[in-house]
Each structure stands twice: as structure tokens, then as C-alpha cells.
Automatic annotation (TrEMBL):
It comes from Asanoa iriomotensis. Its cofactor is FAD. The keyword Ribonucleoprotein does not apply. The keyword Signal does not apply. This is FAD/NAD(P)-binding domain-containing protein. Pfam families: Pyr_redox_2 (PF07992). PANTHER family: 64 KDA MITOCHONDRIAL NADH DEHYDROGENASE (EUROFUNG) (PTHR42913:SF3), APOPTOSIS-INDUCING FACTOR 1 (PTHR42913). Residues 5-74 form the FAD/NAD(P)-binding domain. Belongs to the NADH dehydrogenase family. InterPro entries: FAD/NAD-bd_sf, FAD/NAD-binding_dom, NADH-Q_oxidoreductase. Keywords: FAD, Flavoprotein, Oxidoreductase. Signal peptide: none annotated.
Length: 180
């Protein structure tokens, strides 16, 4: 893996880096980073250097306490201050936390902050293969990589739950995301 390398060309044999190094490969996965819409900044909300809304531990805007931010547009963080990576996993946890914070405040209770202890990247490579990489909260790889059909089945189950099941049975999903 080479981070921050500029690619000059991709061809049938691999890729050529801007500095002249050649990397042979049977397949190349070209990925792109995340960008944040300018909506929060343009609305006058406090944002970080990437344009993500600055939020407290319950996902409430630090500059406008009646506004909540979730997903990739908010700089959600753990109780020890670690900002979560952008992605569907952390975004889903942040959404559940914001939901509970809003309902707690509306009922006069003190909401609990977001608690995340670990993360993982799970990538499907078709129906029969996948990669599961445990990571630190900022996305740095750690632990043992898992591959194969079990990972593909796990990713498929996650996608089904996040799509079909969550929309069909939102009360169960909310109960499952309850803050402890």
C-alpha cells in the first residue's frame, strides 16, 4: 500500500506513479476521498478545517444548540475526543446517538454522549468474497484481516439491515441502538 502517491497512468498491467515507479497488478481499485457539502459553513454553523460541523458528544452543534449534525457532515467524536472517520458505520452510530439525545432532551432527561470503542472496514468483493479489517477509530488498520465468503455474507447482512430492515422496522432499530 502506498498512501498519498500520485498515479500517472493505469493500464492492463498495473499502474505508473507520477514519480516513475511502476506497480504491477492484475486489478486496481481506484478510490476517492470524502468531501463535505458547504451547507453547514454557508448556514453559519461552526465547522472544522474539512467543513464538518463541530458537534458535542450528543451530536448537537457547538455554535447552534438547536441543530444536530450526523453522518459525514459532522465531526462526531468519542468521549476522549477522538474524531470518528467518515463512513457508513460511524455515521449510523452517530445517527442513533443524535436520535436518543433529541428524544432525551425533549423529555427533560440528560442525554448520554456517543460511545464508540472500535471500528472496522468491511468490503464486499462480490457474493463469494470480502475483506474485514478491524481499525482504530481514525481508520488506521489493526488486528487480523478476515477474508472469504463469511465476510461477504456479513457485509450482505449489514447492507440488508441498513436498507430494507431499518426502513421497514424503525422502532426495532432505534431500540437496538439504545444508549447504555
Amino acid at each position: 500500500m502506498r498512501e498519498h502517491a500520485k498515479v500517472a497512468k493505469v493500464d492492463a498491467d498495473g499502474l505508473l506513479l507520477d514519480g516513475g515507479d511502476r506497480i504491477a497488478a492484475d486489478a486496481v481499485a481506484w478510490t476517492a476521498g470524502f468531501t463535505v457539502p458547504d451547507l453547514a459553513r454557508e448556514a453559519g454553523l461552526a465547522v472544522d478545517q474539512r467543513g464538518r460541523m463541530l458537534v458535542d458528544g450528543t451530536l448537537r452543534s457547538q455554535s447552534h444548540p438547536d441543530v444536530y449534525g450526523i453522518g459525514d457532515a459532522a465531526a462526531a467524536h468519542t468521549q476522549d475526543g477522538q474524531v470518528l472517520r467518515m463512513g457508513c458505520g460511524p455515521g449510523g452510530l452517530a445517527a442513533a446517538c443524535a436520535f436518543h439525545a433529541i428524544t432525551a432532551r425533549l423529555s427533560g432527561r440528560t442525554p448520554k454522549p456517543l460511545r464508540v470503542k472500535g471500528d472496522a472496514l468491511c468490503i464486499s468483493l462480490g457474493r463469494h468474497d470480502g475483506i474485514l479489517q478491524p481499525t482504530d477509530l481514525d481508520g488506521r488498520p489493526r488486528g487480523t484481516v478476515r477474508t472469504g465468503r463469511p465476510v461477504a455474507l456479513l457485509k450482505n447482512a449489514v447492507l440488508r439491515a441498513a436498507g430494507w430492515y431499518n426502513l421497514r422496522y424503525p422502532a426495532i432499530v432505534v431500540a437496538g441502538a439504545r444508549q447504555g
